[in-house]
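Input for the complex:
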Amino acid sequence: MKFIFFTGGVVSSLGKGLTAASLGTLLEHRGLRVILQKFDPYLNVDPGTMSPFQHGEVYVLDDGAETDLDLGHYERFTSGKLSQLNNLTSGQVYRDVLDKERRGDYLGKTVQVIPHITDEIKTRIRTVAEKSGADVIITEIGGTVGDIEGLPFLEAMRQFMHEAGRENVLFVHVTLVPYIKAAGELKTKPTQQSVAKLREIGIQPSVVVCRTEFPLEQDVREKIALFTNIPVNAVIEARDVKNTIYELPVMLHRENFDELVCRELGFETKDPDLTQWKNFVDRVVNPTNKVRIAVVGKYIELQDAYKSVYEALTHAGAACDCEVQQVRVDAEELEREDPARLLGDVQGILIPGGFGDRGVEGKVIAARYAREKGIPYLGLCLGMQIATIEFARHACGLEGANSTEFGDNSPHPVICLMEEQEGVTALGASMRLGTWEAKVQEGSLAHRLYGSSLISERHRHRYEFNNKYRAQLEGAGFIISATSPDGSLVEIIEVKGHPFYIASQFHPEFLSKPNHPHPLFQGFINAALNRQKR
Ligand code: GLN
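Predicted:
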């Protein structure tokens, strides 16, 4: 088994996760079994309690792990199914070490960063290696080389290389080569210095991937090679992609990145056949049609808050030969503005997940607009709860209907806390999480889209549809088209007589892949396209 470690230099937001994921794509296309994972140096046990302002989306795995959004890229770019083992944080490492210390496992010893913390990190790599049965494990270390908090991870990687053998371990350093306008030049110094910083702690990268806005000319490559102590063909250009992140594997392949990695690690494989991947990219870049989809949320100004939702829209668009133009609508603005001004020219309205009451009334306005005007609607998690509240208030006459998440005094709590959540006070990893099965009603829109009566989807929520209102809402044209297998939890809702109105208590966006769009998203884009063509 071989191990590749990705480090980052100079600045954050370099696309290190995407670069690692892209290498995963290329190696998988060469026939290798690949597993990706991420080590995050922060002290949170997982990102589940962090605000999207801090961290972007929280990505949820089958086993219910709440993880860094890079794991979303890993799952979209490769076929490997990930688990909670694949996202390690300093918080987890320290928690486990301190638990052991209290149990007396280290009795008599002083517990220290080296060896106890570093040992714990190395053990995790070995556990993942054993469980995965992969040919190669790609590990991305979060943060930037030079960060104090990243040091234990880098030291653990250095030791790991020493123990596993140099021929089995490869370090890839992703760095920035900035362009200085006044000088009209690309500058290599930051890269030289960040590699020097790595060498100081005993790590010599074998490959340097250079994020750049302009082509790396031969002289620049040679300079980087000389000062970072690598052959010039191990300097890889990663220019900003023009249209879509899915171009990145193709670009890196052109730079012979995957060939180089295989040679360094002694893998003999076939050349990758990227035809299908390139076809997908082509459909994203050169679509025939176009639809405008409003995404109504409270974090729309953040690029990363609804990452998987945006990706799922792209996948579905590609499948429908259609560009999906995202119109990001601030829910709070809808509370002040005429909805026709913000939503008048879209062919679909999507409300993603969310927590807390800010922007909720704006979302209710958007859901009502979609329902009354016959605009295709897709609601995800909170988006289903909003649709329920809206329907109860305006189609059922239940004035003041609300979710108990937004106040205890609603006369009609149509969304309420799940029974199992009643006594829960801790906020970390305490929701209904991960993959659960649901049964789908035959004859429903959901059944048509899935083509199946049994589905499995990923969840992350605390509140649910209040069954006391079931009959009343159904009487007014509300359709409950999927529930948990025992019938107790509502999983999908629809509205009778509407061209396309569907919302799920789960998060379908986490299961969408480039060449396998999620059926709910694909149905939604198809419906939007039909509206467009009317
Ligand atoms: N806040 C809602 C709940 O906890 C919805 C969660 C979500 O959208 N992920 O049930």
